[in-house]
C-alpha cells in the first residue's frame, strides 16, 4: 500500500489532519492542497511537515490531478473543503477519499447546514467523517462527534463548534487508517435530506410581521459573520423593500424603548421588541 496521503481543504482542521498524520503515523503527507480563495493559509503547515504545497481554487485542474495520480495516495482527505471532488479525483485514492461534514448524515446533507440546524430548532448536533462517493455526502460514516447546542446559537458559533469537534476527533480518525476496511462502511439506508446552495429558510428573508422569536431565530441562522458561506446576508422584508440586516437584538421591554438611529427599526411584537440595524440591500 502507498504511504502517501493528500490533504485537501482550508484552515485549522486541514492543518490538524496534516500535523497528526506527520507526527504519529507511518504515512507521508505527499501533498497539501489549499482550496482557500487566494489565502495561502495551509502553506505554513506544509512547511512544518515538509510537504509539497499547492494553492488550488479548483480541483479540476489537469496538473493537480496528474500530481495526485503520480503520488498514488492511500487516502485523500477533504477537510473543511467546499470544492466538489470529481469522479476522476475520487478514483485516485487507493483506499479511500474521506470527507469532513459539518452535520449529521444522512439527515443534513449538502451545504448551509448551520443555517438549517438553527432554523429547525435542533438542540443537539454532530459532525461526520465519511467515505466519499460520487453522490455528495452519501457515503458511509466512519466517525461521528456529537455536542449540545446553546439556546442562542448562531451560524458562526455553530460553525466554530463543528470545526473544533472535527479537530478533537482527528486523533481517533487517524488511528483507524491502518486497519480500515471500507467494505464494512456501508452507505446509510436512507438518503436523508439534501440542502442545496440556494436552499434557505424563507429564502433568507425575515418578515417584519413575524414574532420576535421567529425574527431572531432566522437572523441567528443566517449570521456567519466573516466565515465563507453560501447563505449570504439575512434580509428584512419591510415597507415593500428588502433590506440587508447588520444586527438584530432582542430588547427587554422593561427598560423602555431605545432611541433609534437613522438606519434602525424597532419592531414591537407580542413576545418582545426587536431592534434591527440595517442598510439598503445590495442584491
What is the count of β-strands? 14
Radius of gyration: 21 Å
* First-last Cα distance: 51 Å
Structural domain tally: 2
Order of strands in the sheet with the most strands? 3-2-1-4-5-7-8
Give the mean pLDDT.
93
Q: What does it look like?
A:
With about 280 residues, the chain is an alpha/beta fold. The protein folds into two domains: about 5-195, Formyl transferase, N-terminal domain (Rossmann fold); about 200-280, no CATH class. Helix content is about 25%, strand content about 30%. It is built from seven helices and 14 strands. The chain has helices at about 10-25, 45-50, 60-70, 85-90, 115-120, 155-175, 210-220; strands at about 5-10, 30-35, 55, 75-80, 95-100, 110, 125-130, 140-150, 195, 205, 235-240, 240-250, 265-270, 270-280. The protein has a seven-stranded mixed β-sheet with strand order 3-2-1-4-5-7-8, sandwiched between helices. Strands 10-11-12-14-13 form a five-stranded mixed β-sheet, with helices on one face. Helix 7 links the parallel strand 10 (about 205) and strand 11. Helix 1 (about 10-25) packs parallel to helix 6 and helix 5 (about 115-120) packs antiparallel against helix 7. The protein is elongated and about 70 Å long.
Features:
single chain; 283 residues; alpha/beta; Rossmann fold; 2 domains; 7 helices; 28% strand; elongated
List the helices and strands and how they pair.
Layout: E1 4-9, H1 11-24, E2 28-34, H2 43-49, E3 53-55, H3 62-71, E4 75-79, H4 87-90, E5 96-101, E6 109-110, H5 113-119, E7 124-131, E8 141-148, H6 155-176, E9 194-195, E10 205-207, H7 212-222, E11 235-238, E12 241-251, E13 264-269, E14 272-280
Parallel strand pairs: 1-2, 1-4, 2-3, 4-5, 6-9, 10-11
Antiparallel strand pairs: 5-7, 7-8, 11-12, 12-14, 13-14
Helix pairs in contact: 1-2, 1-6, 5-7
Amino acid at each position: 500500500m502507498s504511504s502517501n496521503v493528500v490533504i485537501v481543504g482550508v484552515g485549522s482542521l486541514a492543518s490538524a489532519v496534516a500535523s497528526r498524520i506527520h507526527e504519529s503515523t507511518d504515512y507521508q503527507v505527499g501533498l497539501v492542497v489549499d482550496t482557500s480563495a487566494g489565502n495561502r493559509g495551509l502553506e505554513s503547515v506544509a512547511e512544518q511537515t515538509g510537504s509539497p504545497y499547492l494553492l488550488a481554487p479548483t480541483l479540476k485542474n489537469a496538473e493537480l490531478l496528474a500530481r495526485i495520480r503520480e503520488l498514488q495516495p492511500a487516502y485523500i482527505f477533504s477537510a473543511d473543503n467546499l470544492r466538489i471532488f470529481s469522479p476522476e479525483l475520487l478514483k485516485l485514492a487507493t483506499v479511500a477519499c474521506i470527507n469532513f461534514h459539518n452535520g449529521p448524515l444522512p439527515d443534513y446533507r449538502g451545504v448551509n447546514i448551520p443555517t438549517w440546524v438553527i432554523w429547525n430548532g435542533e438542540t443537539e448536533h454532530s459532525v461526520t467523517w465519511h467515505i466519499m462517493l460520487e453522490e455528495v455526502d452519501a457515503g458511509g460514516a466512519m466517525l461521528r462527534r456529537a455536542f449540545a447546542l446553546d439556546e442562542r446559537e448562531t451560524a458562526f458559533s455553530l460553525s466554530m463548534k463543528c470545526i473544533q469537534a472535527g479537530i478533537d476527533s482527528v486523533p481517533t480518525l487517524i488511528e483507524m487508517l491502518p486497519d480500515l476496511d471500507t467494505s464494512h462502511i456501508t452507505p446509510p439506508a436512507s438518503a436523508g435530506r439534501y440542502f442545496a446552495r440556494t436552499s434557505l429558510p424563507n429564502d433568507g428573508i425575515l418578515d417584519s410581521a413575524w414574532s420576535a422569536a421567529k425574527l431572531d431565530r432566522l437572523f441567528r441562522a443566517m449570521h456567519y459573520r466573516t466565515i465563507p458561506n453560501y447563505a449570504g446576508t439575512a434580509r428584512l422584508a419591510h415597507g415593500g423593500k428588502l433590506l440587508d440586516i447588520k444586527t438584530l437584538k432582542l430588547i427587554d421591554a422593561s427598560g423602555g424603548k431605545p432611541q433609534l438611529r437613522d438606519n434602525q427599526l424597532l419592531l414591537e411584537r407580542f413576545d418582545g421588541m426587536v431592534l434591527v440595524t440595517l442598510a439598503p440591500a445590495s442584491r
